[in-house]
TrEMBL record:
Organism for this UniProt entry: Helobdella robusta
Keyword Protein biosynthesis carried by entry: no
Protein's name in the database: ADP-ribosylation factor
Stored SMART domains: ARF, RAB, SAR
Function, as annotated: GTP-binding protein involved in protein trafficking; modulates vesicle budding and uncoating within the Golgi apparatus.
Name of the gene encoding the protein in the UniProt record: 20213598
Positions of Mg(2+) binding: 31, 48
Length: 176
């Protein structure tokens, strides 16, 4: 009942609600990105055991972002967060070439899940400022993104990545 009233209230007053799941391998920078979006600045973080959840208000949309830990022992729990997810943010450490295949395998597994079939996919190529970071083209190739069919996906170029990504997510999700 409360959810119905909340949905009606948001429709009347124009604020859309979006549920976003942010995942990726450990040390990719998920929590740093979450708090950059929430607070507008980089904060010191520790490895996430479990999850962080924050509401990010951006361009008349209220994003509820679930940041779930990426350690290999936690990854099987990701599926418990899939239900009602409208947008999926997969964070990749652009500087971690050795684990690009592992990231691809985890992403591929997730994208086969029925509960995520309608979710738009945003890839954050994090740590692009490091000297040996993979380019967006390399990440696209290593993750096999060109092979994805029937899925809306983007990898924003380097820049103010979190906000460019939210722009793209808000545009894609408002089409639905």
């Amino acid at each position: 009942m409360g959810l119905t009233i909340s949905n009606l209230f948001s429709r009347l007053f124009g604020k859309k609600q979006m549920r976003i799941l942010m995942v990726g391998l450990d040390a990719a920078g998920k929590t740093t990105i979450l708090y950059k979006l929430k607070l507008g600045e980089i904060v010191t973080t520790i490895p996430t055991i479990g999850f962080n959840v924050e509401t990010v208000e951006y361009k008349n949309i209220s994003f509820t972002v679930w940041d779930v830990g990426g350690q290999d022992k936690i990854r099987p729990l990701w599926r418990h967060y899939f239900q009602n997810t409208q947008g999926l943010i997969f964070v990749v450490d652009s500087n971690d070439r050795e684990r690009a295949l592992e990231a691809r395998e985890e992403l591929t597994k997730m994208l086969q899940e029925d509960e995520l079939r309608d979710a738009v996919l945003l890839i954050f190529a994090n740590k692009q400022d490091l000297p040996n970071a993979m380019t967006v083209a390399e990440i696209t190739e290593k993750l096999g993104l060109n092979q994805l069919r029937a899925r809306t996906v983007t990898v924003p170029p380097q820049g103010d990545v979190p906000y460019e990504g939210l722009d793209w997510l808000s545009n894609e999700l408002s089409k639905r």
